[in-house]
Amino acid sequence: MARPRILVVGAGFAGVECVRRLERSLAPGEADIALVTPFSYQLYLPLLPQVASGVLTPQSVAISLRRSRRHRTRIVPGGAIGVDTKAKVCVVRKITDEIVNEPYDYIVMAAGSVTRTFDIPGLVDNARGMKTLAEAAYIRDHVISQLDLADASHDEEERASRLQFVVVGGGYAGTETAACLQLLTSNAVRHYPRLDPKLIKWHLIDIAPRLMPELGDKLGLSALEILRRRGIEVSLGVSVAEAGPDKVTFTDGRVLPCRTLIWTAGVAASPLVATLDAETVRGRLAVTPEMKLPGADGVFALGDAAAVPDLAKGDGAICPPTAQHAMRQGRKLADNIIASLRGRPLQPYVHKDLGLVVDLGGRDAVSKPLGIELRGMPAQAAARGYHWAALRTNVAKTRVMTNWLLNAIAGDDFVRTGFQARKQATLRDFEYTDAYLTPEEIRAHTAGADARG
């Protein structure tokens, strides 16, 4: 009898934790496990702002999936572009551009999320995101290159536009990105004697009336005070009306000369979700508390791609798209797949949120672990301690700790690699959101494969 085939789509927090639990809990030969991912690493997403500011190297937050020889999961190097739940087939575009069918008995939809965008003129052509490792590395190069280009320019208008930076999104990603990159430029400008430090302006804008409302009023105000004390102009209740290559128009009518627009205004579930033609909640797959997709045999979903009921909060709440939920959901879902294989009942996912941490760079942070409000160095210790403990391998922990110590002792460096220096890269270039098939295309593809087979 053929062994059951378990296919995990996505190597984020949820997918990797699910695979690790399956490998440890299943007996040899009990099932075949495959993981679909375009990159053979797990990205520790919360630390991307520190990669963008150069505090951490890209390798320190990209944890290799091929490093351990003990793991028996087959890695499929590519991206899932569609799922036919009736035929039990996942359509994968491999990194060679070959399109293949991956049959499954159980599929774990852990495809994560992409940057949420809106129909704003010029946005996808002129903004950068903070969702992938390549984007973080690119933004670092881009920001330093603006200082170099401003230093080389004799045009006052061009110089002013290159030294204005806009971050959209007052959540954790946007706030940390603005805070960390502002520290980078304020430290770097000391080495540019021709540049007036007063010309460097960072703007953080958000349509919401408060900064990081999940932290509560007091900590949100503390973060706001820290940013404004550093000279970051924070505008709330404001968004972008139009994004051009050298200027940004805000919804309040202001027009700002600017060559750097970083868009972090939330996330949306992976477009792969739409290929299943299933019920969704705010764009995420509607699943049971056991993370099973109703009406689809052998289909489970979790993490950012799924609206997992938050039983700890109740009142119809769904789990927020955070790492702490994704990791725990991954482990619980692996247990449920194993229970299904062995004929045991599935268990619902329940987890009470442990709190939030926000690293604002340097000695600044605000944190709320277990409901305890912290500021300054205690909050920084809590934030970095949490991230360090959450890193999956000792190698990653060593690299991150070494980077932090080196940065604390030696300070920032301002080297740019020239990454895509001649070709500007934007949101459109990094997240491949146009690569997915429609449900009709998927059915046609799987039907054609069956006919040829």
From TrEMBL:
Its EC number is 1.6.5.-. GO terms for molecular function: oxidoreductase activity. The keyword Flavoprotein applies. InterPro entries: FAD/NAD-bd_sf, FAD/NAD-binding_dom, NDH-2. The keyword Cytoplasm does not apply. It comes from the Bacteria. It is an enzyme of class 1 (oxidoreductase). Residues 5-330 form the FAD/NAD(P)-binding domain. Keywords: FAD, Flavoprotein, NAD, Oxidoreductase. Belongs to the NADH dehydrogenase family. This is NAD(P)/FAD-dependent oxidoreductase. It comes from Streptomyces atroolivaceus.
